[in-house]
């Protein structure tokens, strides 16, 4: 489709007389498509929008009337946001949890991407025995529910590894903010199967002649990886980065187990769950809290969106 | 409100150590890999020299060298996977043959329990409904939307709107939809959108989440709502990647949009579609937060992951919880087999 | 210190670098307690000798309650130099087993379910209480309470906070305006309900939605009725599986609950019909009383915290509670709950804290801060500020009270926090008594 997209409603005369009827039909078609897609997009956004409107409504209003009454009877308040952002106490301030979230998320995104791209390259382009089975095995590991991995992993951190009474690896014995390391470790483990699967999809579809040419020139695998593969899959890495970022940022369970619930280490999600939970149905805090936690992922998504689209494009070039 | 930056300093320090560790590990590994081949090359040179001196045949070492590279490229991943997932998976499998406290072997009792108990059987059925519907509907919607919105003027806005739910946690999404499904008695104002619509059309408000089997489908809507954005973005990218000359050629042949879709678009985006369906299927099998937050598995809406969590952690029934987890492993087998076949085809092609 | 820290962090980097060899030292508390030795610290003399030690506590207590908790042992910390690190989690029941199995157990945990306590004790994870703690507990709590934390003859810890569940909330104002009387027997209660229903208001409001604990308020109903129709002895047999869960006596009690909760004429004031009970959160279930849409709400003493801001909770106020009457006015069984201070470590400072939390000093210190009830005999009722808590403490300290612990907390978790909760939800949602009880019985192995 190299021709210009017919601009909707521009009413230009078709340059060629041949398919006037077809053109009209096409414009109608594309207009229907436009309307349908707008309607769908709105439909998709309504639930979130409702929550957004609710987050500015007073507590008793939220609990007794629907959010749409806001438009006939607007009662506006910032109290919900104030509660969520600035209500402090022994449990600390939101900013503190925010920093925790960042400190947890950034390494938890970097490590799996780096390790997975190395592994995916090896599985796709290095010839060794059993590589297909290894790949299938890693793929299948995606199904292991992380809940079942919590206890063994926690034991790995707290008691180390010993076989037959001989301590092979010591316990980590981390305190306070050092526990971030445990969370990074756990998130990295859990992210690897999916990251390897997706990256393998991209890397294995890179043109083989490119690799062959480099090999003939005497380049080693590390060199090919660094100079040829990495630049080509940068968009794909950004794409996986977004997924992993969204997952880690929104995670509650892993952080709760490996970082604990105190304000030295717990991420935003722990704090928000707490805000909403203790006194029960605090809808008004939930609504504001949800939006506070959405802001950062949204910024990340919007700023990386371009890479994201290109990234997945690169992989499917050679369909 | 004063904010104590000094108190936050150790966290930043820790983050910095994390980043340093990252650079050290990844950089170190690549450096190591640059050194190893050089060393091998030197040795081979020496061998060559020695061989030419003695007149013996030159040993072939290329294969082994590949193996060494593969080993180092895979080392971090394999180590982490072994500790974080393989050991737990083996442990879970073993526990599924043991009793609640994991002290005695009980054979297949836990599996017998799984199929004998009516409520658990229901859980298995529900999971099947989920895993059949969600990938299909979410991918289908994503595909249709990607085609519809392709090259439209407002494309990036529209895509962002559909993708928005991805940025919300599963718990957050479930809460948003609980809002939509909320119920108030008919003499009161409705606070849930769905009931408001029903009421304004002259109907009676309903307790949506209580009505089985409708409620399972309503929960599935939540998952589709989240995953459709993922499908749409990936497939949209794939559609854009179809080479322009193919499309132009087809158009000159007078292909209708319908034929274009089935003959050109679909075959071209097949790999992307597979990735989407597989990824969503696995995410669906493991769905946990949505059900737990929306109904906690009541009213016949329970799924395997939620029940597994309850059995293993809340009820202290390690054996039964593990058996449910193993059943999840089994459910993913068709996908694994499909993946193997795909890989074979790829290697042959 | 800075040096030690960076060395430690380097070690972590080493671990991540797959060298896998971390050495770490705890960050010790160098601060000497400056208060030690002063007059107000005299009471803490017996807990001294652990200056600079740290004790971790894990519980389900969060937010405002968490702050009150920390305030209540502040003086103890200042005087003894023991630092108490409390962490509350809404996921306590599920997280505690994970932490314990993962080798990351807290020093102390406040366990609200004797069933869970028994599970840890049987698995050998809990440390029996020290002789000091035991002596303190025996001096301050009745044997009725201590038996719940005694497993196979070993005592594992004293109760901390308690609550009374056999309460019906009502509006004294409304009752006075309409000329209604607080009922003294079950029959009176039903008569009153009919009277209110005839006046056009639905008498009862109820709600059992409570996140992943949905259903528990309904189990309290059944337990309260079991105590009243079958008596405390049968109740004990029921909670220990001495009689099956689908025994006719249980069915009788549940049907009795049904005369209120499944009666469309009686429920669900302010929310809708019977089924709306299942989706109404327990926190907001009683609030229609303040707007006159319902008159009666059966819920525990801690419901005092759930009323909208500005509601006066007192005998002459907007809302108050009366004792959920028995069938026979001569008998006054009381259903209640509480949490037990159990130890996963037996270091001396842990035992000191455990002993202190069982003491009368602690109970009075915590009670003064408000919103707290305990069965501690040394608790001076004058230290309890709010009227409902006073009423509760009065009932708990009354020697004639026949107290029974919440049954669902005594049963194995798979039943007590699983099929029992879910069964009651299904029962509200239309399943018949017999099927529900058979299902629950089937799950009890």
From TrEMBL, chain A:
<feature type="domain" description="ABC transmembrane type-1">
    <location>
        <begin position="98"/>
        <end position="304"/>
    </location>
</feature>
<feature type="transmembrane region" description="Helical">
    <location>
        <begin position="97"/>
        <end position="126"/>
    </location>
</feature>
<keyword id="KW-0472">Membrane</keyword>
<keyword id="KW-1133">Transmembrane helix</keyword>
<keyword id="KW-1003">Cell membrane</keyword>
<protein>
    <submittedName>
        <fullName>Carbohydrate ABC transporter membrane protein 2, CUT1 family (TC 3.A.1.1.-)</fullName>
    </submittedName>
</protein>
<comment type="similarity">
    <text>Belongs to the binding-protein-dependent transport system permease family.</text>
</comment>
<dbReference type="InterPro" id="IPR035906">
    <property type="entry name" value="MetI-like_sf"/>
</dbReference>
<feature type="transmembrane region" description="Helical">
    <location>
        <begin position="184"/>
        <end position="203"/>
    </location>
</feature>
<keyword id="KW-0812">Transmembrane</keyword>
<feature type="transmembrane region" description="Helical">
    <location>
        <begin position="224"/>
        <end position="249"/>
    </location>
</feature>
<dbReference type="GO" id="GO:0055085">
    <property type="term" value="P:transmembrane transport"/>
</dbReference>
<dbReference type="GO" id="GO:0005886">
    <property type="term" value="C:plasma membrane"/>
</dbReference>
<feature type="transmembrane region" description="Helical">
    <location>
        <begin position="33"/>
        <end position="53"/>
    </location>
</feature>
<feature type="transmembrane region" description="Helical">
    <location>
        <begin position="286"/>
        <end position="304"/>
    </location>
</feature>
UniProtKB/TrEMBL annotation, chain B:
<keyword id="KW-1133">Transmembrane helix</keyword>
<feature type="transmembrane region" description="Helical">
    <location>
        <begin position="269"/>
        <end position="288"/>
    </location>
</feature>
<keyword id="KW-0813">Transport</keyword>
<dbReference type="GO" id="GO:0005886">
    <property type="term" value="C:plasma membrane"/>
</dbReference>
<dbReference type="Pfam" id="PF00528">
    <property type="entry name" value="BPD_transp_1"/>
</dbReference>
<keyword id="KW-0812">Transmembrane</keyword>
<dbReference type="InterPro" id="IPR000515">
    <property type="entry name" value="MetI-like"/>
</dbReference>
<feature type="transmembrane region" description="Helical">
    <location>
        <begin position="217"/>
        <end position="239"/>
    </location>
</feature>
<feature type="transmembrane region" description="Helical">
    <location>
        <begin position="161"/>
        <end position="180"/>
    </location>
</feature>
<keyword id="KW-1003">Cell membrane</keyword>
<feature type="transmembrane region" description="Helical">
    <location>
        <begin position="322"/>
        <end position="340"/>
    </location>
</feature>
<feature type="transmembrane region" description="Helical">
    <location>
        <begin position="128"/>
        <end position="149"/>
    </location>
</feature>
<feature type="domain" description="ABC transmembrane type-1">
    <location>
        <begin position="124"/>
        <end position="341"/>
    </location>
</feature>
<feature type="transmembrane region" description="Helical">
    <location>
        <begin position="68"/>
        <end position="90"/>
    </location>
</feature>
<dbReference type="GO" id="GO:0055085">
    <property type="term" value="P:transmembrane transport"/>
</dbReference>
Automatic annotation (TrEMBL), chain C:
<protein>
    <submittedName>
        <fullName>Carbohydrate ABC transporter substrate-binding protein, CUT1 family (TC 3.A.1.1.-)</fullName>
    </submittedName>
</protein>
<dbReference type="InterPro" id="IPR006059">
    <property type="entry name" value="SBP"/>
</dbReference>
<dbReference type="Pfam" id="PF01547">
    <property type="entry name" value="SBP_bac_1"/>
</dbReference>
<dbReference type="InterPro" id="IPR050490">
    <property type="entry name" value="Bact_solute-bd_prot1"/>
</dbReference>
<keyword id="KW-0813">Transport</keyword>
<keyword id="KW-0732">Signal</keyword>
<feature type="signal peptide">
    <location>
        <begin position="1"/>
        <end position="24"/>
    </location>
</feature>
<comment type="similarity">
    <text>Belongs to the bacterial solute-binding protein 1 family.</text>
</comment>
């Amino acid at each position: 489709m190299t021709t210009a997209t017919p601009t909707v409603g521009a009413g230009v005369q078709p340059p060629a007389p041949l398919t006037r009827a077809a053109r009209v039909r096409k414009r109608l078609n594309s207009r229907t498509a436009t309307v349908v897609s707008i309607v769908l997009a709105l439909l998709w956004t309504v639930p979130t929008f409702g929550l957004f409107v609710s987050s500015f409504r007073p507590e008793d209003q939220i609990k007794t009337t629907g959010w749409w009454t806001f438009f006939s009877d607007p009662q506006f308040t910032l109290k919900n946001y104030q509660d969520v952002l600035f209500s402090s106490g022994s449990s600390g301030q939101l900013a503190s949890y925010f920093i925790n979230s960042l400190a947890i998320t950034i390494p938890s995104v970097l490590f799996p991407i780096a390790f997975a791209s190395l592994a995916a390259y090896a599985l796709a382009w290095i010839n060794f025995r059993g590589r297909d089975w290894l790949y299938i095995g890693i793929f299948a590991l995606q199904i292991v529910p992380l809940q079942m991995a919590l206890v063994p992993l926690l034991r790995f951190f707290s008691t180390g590894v010993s076989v037959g009474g001989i301590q092979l690896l010591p316990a980590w014995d981390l305190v306070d903010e050092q526990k971030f390391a445990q969370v990074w470790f756990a998130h990295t483990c859990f992210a690897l199967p999916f990251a390897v699967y997706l990256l393998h999809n991209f890397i294995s579809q890179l043109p083989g002649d490119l690799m062959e040419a480099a090999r003939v020139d005497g380049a080693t695998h590390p060199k090919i990886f660094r100079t040829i593969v990495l630049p080509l899959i940068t968009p794909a890495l950004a794409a996986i980065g977004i997924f992993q970022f969204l997952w880690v940022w929104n995670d509650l369970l892993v952080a709760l187990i490996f970082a604990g619930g105190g304000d030295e280490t717990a991420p935003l999600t722990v704090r928000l769950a707490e805000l909403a939970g203790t006194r029960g149905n605090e809808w008004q805090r939930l609504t504001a809290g949800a939006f506070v936690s959405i802001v950062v992922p949204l910024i990340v998504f919007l700023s990386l969106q371009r890479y994201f689209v290109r990234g997945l494009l690169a992989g499917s070039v050679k369909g | 409100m004063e904010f104590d930056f000094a108190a936050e300093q150790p966290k930043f320090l820790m983050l910095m150590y994390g980043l340093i560790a990252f650079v050290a590990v990844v950089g170190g590994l690549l450096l190591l890999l640059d050194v190893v081949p050089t060393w091998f090359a030197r040795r081979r040179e020496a061998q060559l020299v020695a061989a030419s001196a003695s007149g013996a045949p030159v040993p072939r070492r290329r294969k082994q060298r590949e193996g060494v590279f593969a080993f180092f490229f895979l080392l971090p991943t394999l180590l982490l996977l072994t500790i974080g997932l393989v050991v737990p998976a083996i442990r879970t499998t073993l526990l599924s043959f043991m009793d609640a406290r994991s002290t005695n072997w009980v054979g297949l009792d836990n599996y017998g329990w799984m199929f004998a108990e009516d409520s658990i059987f229901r859980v298995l059925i529900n999971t099947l409904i989920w895993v059949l519907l969600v990938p299909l509907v979410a991918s289908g919607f994503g595909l249709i939307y990607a085609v519809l919105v392709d090259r439209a003027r407002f494309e990036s806005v529209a895509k962002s709107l559909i993708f928005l739910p991805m940025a919300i946690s599963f718990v957050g999404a479930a809460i948003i939809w609980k809002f939509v499904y909320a119920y108030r008695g008919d003499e009161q104002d409705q606070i849930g959108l769905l009931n408001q619509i029903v009421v304004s059309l002259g109907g009676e408000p309903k307790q949506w989440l209580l009505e089985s089997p409708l409620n399972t489908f309503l929960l599935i809507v939540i998952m589709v709502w989240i995953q459709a954005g993922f499908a749409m973005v990936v497939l949209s990218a794939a559609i854009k990647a179809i080479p322009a000359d193919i499309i132009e050629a087809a158009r000159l042949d007078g292909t209708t949009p319908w034929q274009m879709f089935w003959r050109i678009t679909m075959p071209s985006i097949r790999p992307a579609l597979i990735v989407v369906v597989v990824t969503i299927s696995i995410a669906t099998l493991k769905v946990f937060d949505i059900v737990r937050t929306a109904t906690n598995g009541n009213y016949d809406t329970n799924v395997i992951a939620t029940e597994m969590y309850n059995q293993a952690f809340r009820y202290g029934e390690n054996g039964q919880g593990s058996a449910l987890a193993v059943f999840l492993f089994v459910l993913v087998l068709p996908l694994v087999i499909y993946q193997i076949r795909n890989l074979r085809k790829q290697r042959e092609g | 210190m800075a040096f030690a820290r960076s060395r430690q962090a380097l070690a972590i980097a080493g671990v991540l670098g797959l060298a896998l060899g971390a050495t770490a030292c705890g960050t010790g508390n160098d601060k000497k307690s400056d208060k030690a030795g002063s007059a107000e610290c005299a009471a803490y003399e017996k807990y001294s000798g652990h200056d600079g030690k740290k004790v971790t506590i894990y519980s389900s207590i969060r937010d405002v309650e968490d702050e009150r908790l920390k305030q209540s042992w502040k003086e103890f910390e200042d005087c003894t130099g023991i630092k108490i690190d409390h962490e509350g989690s809404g996921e306590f029941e599920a997280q505690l087993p994970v932490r314990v199995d993962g080798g990351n157990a807290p020093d102390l945990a406040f366990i609200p379910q004797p069933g869970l306590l028994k599970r840890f004790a049987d698995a050998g994870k809990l440390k029996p209480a020290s002789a000091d703690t035991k002596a303190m507990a025996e001096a301050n709590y009745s044997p009725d309470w201590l038996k719940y934390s005694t497993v196979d003859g070993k005592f594992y810890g004293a109760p901390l906070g308690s609550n009374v569940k056999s309460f019906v909330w009502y509006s004294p104002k409304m009752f006075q305006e309409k000329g209604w009387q607080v009922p003294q027997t079950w029959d009176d209660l039903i008569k009153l309900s009919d009277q209110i229903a005839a006046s056009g208001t639905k008498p009862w409001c109820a709600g059992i939605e409570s996140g992943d604990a949905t259903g528990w308020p309904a189990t309290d109903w059944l337990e309260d009725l079991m105590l009243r129709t079958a008596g405390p002895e049968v109740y004990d047999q029921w909670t220990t599986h001495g009689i099956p869960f689908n025994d006719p006596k249980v069915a009788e009690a549940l049907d009795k609950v049904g005369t209120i909760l499944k009666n469309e004429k009686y429920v669900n004031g302010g929310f809708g019909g019977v089924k709306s009970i299942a989706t109404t959160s327990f926190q907001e279930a009683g609030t229609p009383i303040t707007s006159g849409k319902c008159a009666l709400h059966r819920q525990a003493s801690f419901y005092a915290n759930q009323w909208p801001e500005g509601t006066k909770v007192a005998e002459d106020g907007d809302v108050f509670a009366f004792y959920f009457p028995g069938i026979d006015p001569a008998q006054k069984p009381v259903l209640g709950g509480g949490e037990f201070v159990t130890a996963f470590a037996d270091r001396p400072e842990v035992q000191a804290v455990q002993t202190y939390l069982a003491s009368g000093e602690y109970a009075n210190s915590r009670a003064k801060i408000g919103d707290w009830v305990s069965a501690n005999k040394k608790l001076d009722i004058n230290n309890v500020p709010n009227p409902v808590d006073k009423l509760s403490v009065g009932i708990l300290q009354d020697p004639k009270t026949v107290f029974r612990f919440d049954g669902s907390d005594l049963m194995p978790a798979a039943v007590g926090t699983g099929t029992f909760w879910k069964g009651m939800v299904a029962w509200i949602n239309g399943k018949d008594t017999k099927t529900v009880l058979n299902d629950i019985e089937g799950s009890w192995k």
